[in-house]
Amino acid sequence: MPKNITIIGAGIVGVATACYLWRDGHDVTIVDMQPPGEYCSFGNAGILSPGSCVPLATPGILWKVPGYLADPLGPLTINWSYLPRALPWLMRFVAASSAQRVERIADALRLLLKQTFDAYEPLVKHAGVGDLIRRTGYVVVYEKRAAYAGDAIAWKLRRDRGVIIEELDNAGIRHYLPQLPGSYEVGLYLPEQGYVANPERLTKTLAAQLQRDGGRILQRKVLDIEMGPSGPVALATDAGRLPVETLVICAGAHSNEFTSKLGDRVPLEAERGYHVTFSDPRIELPMPVFAPEHKFFVTPMEMGLRIAGQTEFAGVDAEPDYARADVLIRKMRRMFPDISTVDHTKWMGRRPSMPDSLPVIGPASKAPNVWYAFGHGHIGLCSGAPTGRLVAEMIAGRHTNIDVAPYSVTRFA
How far apart are CA 301 and CA 278, in angstroms? Predict the structure, then answer.
């Protein structure tokens, strides 16, 4: 039966969810304080990786953290004044790194992400942006074989779950990426992966198509949730009261501000990341390249060449520390010494990250007319369409295409 559904959040997860709900015949309204695709969905690395089944916390992660923090060019930084607030999340993060939990998390991630291209296909076809989805695969490079050996757990998790991985020597790397200078002791090619050539355009175009189809997008700030006997009945916004029938929360790093009002307290952290986009790099890559030793991706995009990475804990409201973006510029110059860096832009975004690397997808525990779809961390773009399809299946009461229990909000109870 068609419903009136309101979605908080106009990022890729919220927009993809709205598109799938519209396909089921529902009346859909998206509410966000910013236009579609202008928050975290604007500046990600653009990677579509069905093989990204490795959680951030793996066995031994605790012993790597001091080295990351001690390196001024390293991938991790913590604002020490924020540490007391981040500590509970970090403790859960370490707890999630046990071998048994990692295996279960990897299973759940793989089931969700295996659907990436299949779930996006009807959405991009309907919106006329199939050209943005590039199924090129990507190359992984290690400067030192010892670093590759140190990541053995991660690569075993992928291989055990059917991810196709081709090991390369230096000549093999040159075959796929002749533009990449330097010498690397280990390379890997993952042929089933890909990328989005412009994540912002993808989100905005899907949103525009939704509007043409009859969906509504309201640029409003949600201030509060007005509760009735059986759940939310309206949203209080900066433009007045907005009645709701069924509510879906896809508000990224701000989602816990709403779930707490509904009785669900979730350990969501704004894990900040940075990118630098070079508009005239004078280098063209046929596919992305990932450098695990430094935790960054370089992705060819419509707007130039983008390097994205870094993890910063400073809170959702702290001002950007663009010294972290400058680290990426130095890494880019080291990888591509001939790159032109004259024309570039810097950006900071807030990944909505859960300590166990699994998103929250499913019903609220105490409000029968509320559904959750947030907390995707580093895989928001990759899992946007699969999440939207799952939410539509659950709201319709259909059998879901995968077991959704691992993503339940009740796992934190």
Answer: 10
Q: Are 406 and 104 in contact (CB under 8 A)?
A: yes
pTM: 0.97
Q: Give the pLDDT of the chain (413 residues) as one tens digit per residue.
A: 899 999 999 999 999 999 999 999 999 999 999 999 998 899 999 999 999 999 999 999 888 888 888 888 788 899 999 999 999 999 999 999 999 999 999 999 999 999 999 999 999 999 999 999 999 999 999 999 999 999 999 999 999 999 999 999 999 999 999 999 989 999 999 999 999 999 999 999 999 999 999 999 999 999 999 999 999 999 999 999 999 999 999 999 999 999 999 999 999 999 999 999 999 999 999 999 999 999 999 999 999 999 999 999 999 999 999 999 999 999 999 999 999 999 999 999 999 999 999 999 999 999 999 999 999 999 999 999 999 999 999 999 999 999 999 999 999 88
Q: What is the rounded CA–CA span in Å between residue 1 and residue 24?
A: 9
| Listed residue (114, 106, 102, 165) closest to 139, CA to CA | 165
Q: What sign results for the dihedral spanned by CA atoms 401, 406, 409, 410?
A: positive
Return the SS3 of 346: strand
Dihedrals φ, ψ of 115, to 5°?
-90, 0
And the tokens for 322? 């663009």
C-alpha dihedral sign at 284, 204, 297, 307: positive
CA nearest to 345, candidates 294, 280, 401 = 280
Unique residue bearing structure tokens 């934190």: 412
Single out the residue of 250, 230, 282 nearest to residue 385, CA to CA.
250
- 361 contacts 391 by C-beta, under 8 angstroms: yes
**Where are any strands of DSSP class E within 269-359?**
269-278, 289-291, 296-301, 304-313, 344-353
DSSP 8-state code for residue 205: H
Query: At residue 189, what is the residue type?
Result: Y
Q: Tell me which residue has tokens 């009261």.
A: 241
Is 47 in contact with 195 (CB distance < 8 Å)? Answer: yes
Task: Determine the straight-line distance between the first and last CA of the chain, rounded to whole angstroms.
Answer: 31
Shortest CA distance to 381 belongs to which of 240, 249, 197, 213? Answer: 197
List C-alpha distances in Å: 248 to 4, 16, 29.
11, 12, 10
